[in-house]
Amino acid sequence: MSGRPESEPTGRRRPGRRPGSADTRGQILAAARETFSEKGFDKATVRGIARQAGVDPALVHHYFASKEGMFVAAMELPVNPDDVIPMITSGPREEAGERLTRFVLTMTSAEEARQPVLALARTAMTNDRMAAMIREFVTHAVLSRVAETLEIPLIRMEAAFAQLFGVVLMRYVVKLEPLASVSIEELVELLTPTIQRYLDGSRQFPLM
């Protein structure tokens, strides 16, 4: 006799969602990539991703503090908006342009951080669904939050971001000289007044 009650057969798991395992994080990320790709950033939900991965939503929150953090991990982006936005928005308002400029140029100077961003940008140029997903993430998870904190119209934040990203493309993809060779400090000094003007301008646009 085994001493085990007949009502508890061996080798049988209770029904329900999978518990955490060594590969749970990978399963969640795979489900997140599929969900973000199909529904975009805005319409994807933590519950939906958990359902796709076959895990409890609480387990998703165990690995990722927010949907933004999960997107960053799923797309292998180099930075999390939850970490970056306070760094850009904290401090004197008149220095926000320099903080933003220095962050973008410093972050993209490292190849391991720059390549995932450029890879997504290249994909977005030929894939409408990917373009929409990136647009939603950049707009709602990054630019809108910075604009609201600084109390500036979204269009001004978008213009500042577009100018800086254009510089990154010319510097590292097109390799336009002498832009590609000058130091980060030289670029920060050159670009900061223009970026700050975007952030300081009169509020003739709606706060969208």
Automatic annotation (TrEMBL):
Entries under InterPro entries matching the protein: Homeodomain-like_sf, HTH-type_TetR-like_transc_reg, HTH_TetR, Tet_transcr_reg_TetR-rel_C_sf, TetR_C_16
Protein name: AcrR family transcriptional regulator
A Pfam family this chain is assigned to: TetR_C_16
UniProt cross-references to Gene3D superfamilies, sorted A to Z: Homeodomain-like, Tetracycline Repressor, domain 2
Residues annotated to bind DNA: 45-64
Compositionally biased residues, Basic and acidic residues: 1-11
Domain HTH tetR-type: 22-82
Keywords recorded for this protein, A-Z: DNA-binding
Segments of this protein annotated with the region Disordered: 1-24
MF term (GO), any: transcription cis-regulatory region binding
